[in-house]
Design a protein that fits this description.
CATH architecture of the largest domain: 3-Layer(aba) Sandwich
CATH topology of the largest domain: Aspartate Aminotransferase, domain 2
Radius of gyration: 20 Å
Distance between the termini: 35 Å
Strand content: 15-25%
Shape: globular
Number of strands: 13
Largest sheet: 7 strands, mixed
Order of helices and strands: HEHHEHHEHEHEHEEEHHHEEHEEEH
Number of helices: 13
Helix content: 25-40%
Structural class: alpha/beta
Strand order of the largest sheet: 2-8-7-6-5-3-4
CATH class of the largest domain: Alpha Beta
């Protein structure tokens, strides 16, 4: 669906009568450290490129991306964000019945709906810390030909071991596994958990640059898969899917591997420190429970009398936007998700959220 992915910062700003820049958006899962050094300046220098068409098949950045990860360029395809591929996958794979490990990002189900593909969820719950019992998941697999797995998961932040997923793909070669690794760059040591270098005919890996490099407006994503699958994607691939500035950004990032890798490592370390600090502050309340997360956001369950809509509305009065998770299949109006930002913002948000949940909305301003 077009809307419903999270808090609408423009709508909140209109309601409060302020500029969008006055709102702290903790519903959006982007890197709190901003963009890699030099990227914004590089893009400014490339503005003249918008006067001509970009490379129609984005071949140059495909090659740069493939070289970065040591894979064949014929196994990669760049697109207008991973969303472009998610909505193509049911047709490309000719899916007949799809399983989604949930709760999960809504676009997997929406892509199935678009192509009239039946789907079901293998759901995990809060009492298990949102960790999937893979034995139980395997018991369901015989019914399906396609499986979507977000790893680490959005909205729970839970990571499934790369070895577990690799073994799953090997064990069920007749099933296509779509592994969305959009948030894996936020995980310390996450590259060792990636399946991007695996050579399996039933595996598709989604890689996003939007979150870790804080460039969601440029819309850059890649799919990595067997050559035969990549060729099928071209049946539904529009020319010039990746705009000139997006291609310039990929070239800049891939050509500066040492600098880019250092930025990713620094981001991981920063987020790990800030998650711990934020959760330590929130331990002062028994009316909200935060779940362990490996990535840039933390899922929480409200255990008092307030629901997620009320808490989000009250936080918005402080010009802080957090994610109401009620519209995630498998969650309820007890769940919110908060994305980690800079230290001062995190502390301020934690203090306000504590006050809201502890006083159940009274005297919050």
């Amino acid at each position: 669906m077009i809307t419903g992915h999270g808090g609408n910062i423009h709508e909140i700003a209109t309601r409060l009568g302020c500029a969008t820049s006055d709102i702290i958006d903790m519903s959006s899962n982007v890197n709190p450290l901003g963009q890699p050094p030099g990227l914004a300046e590089h893009l400014k220098q490339q503005l003249g490129e918008i006067e001509a068409l970009p490379q129609a098949d984005a071949k140059a950045i495909n090659e740069s991306f493939a070289n970065r990860y040591g894979i064949a360029p014929e196994k990669t395809l760049a697109g207008n964000g991973t969303t472009q591929f998610i909505y193509s996958i049911p047709r490309v794979l000719n899916s007949r019945n799809t399983l989604i490990l949930g709760p999960a990002y809504s676009d997997y189900a929406d892509a199935c709906k678009m192509h009239d593909v039946p789907f079901a969820f293998a759901m995990t719950i809060d009492s298990d810390g949102f960790h999937h019992d893979m034995v139980q998941v395997e018991k369901q697999l015989h019914q399906f030909d396609t499986v979507f797995i977000c790893n680490p998961n959005n909205p729970t932040g839970v990571l499934i071991s790369g070895d577990v997923l690799k073994n799953l793909c090997h064990k069920y070669p007749h099933i296509f596994f779509v592994i969305d690794e959009s948030y894996l760059p936020f995980v310390p040591g996450g590259e060792s958990e990636s399946l991007i270098r695996e050579d399996m005919k039933n595996l598709l890996v989604l890689n996003s640059m939007s979150k870790i490099f804080r460039i969601p407006g440029l819309r850059i994503g890649f799919v990595v898969a067997d050559r035969t699958i990549i060729r099928k994607f071209f049946h539904y691939y529009l020319p010039w899917s990746v705009n000139s500035l997006a291609q310039a950004a990929v070239g800049y990032l891939m050509d500066r591997r040492e600098q880019t890798d250092l930025f990713i490592k620094q981001s991981q370390q920063y987020l790990e420190e800030q998650r711990k600090s934020f959760m330590k502050t929130m331990d002062k309340s028994d009316k909200i429970r935060f779940f362990d997360s490996t990535t840039s956001f933390i899922l929480a369950k409200l255990t008092g009398s307030m629901n997620s809509a009320k808490v989000c509305d009250l936080m918005a009065l402080h010009r802080i936007l957090i994610r109401n998770c009620q519209n995630f299949t498998g969650l309820s109006d007890q769940f919110v998700r908060i994305s980690i930002k800079t230290a001062g913002i995190n502390q301020s948000a934690a203090e306000k959220l504590l006050k809201i949940v502890n006083e159940e909305g009274e005297n919050i301003l």
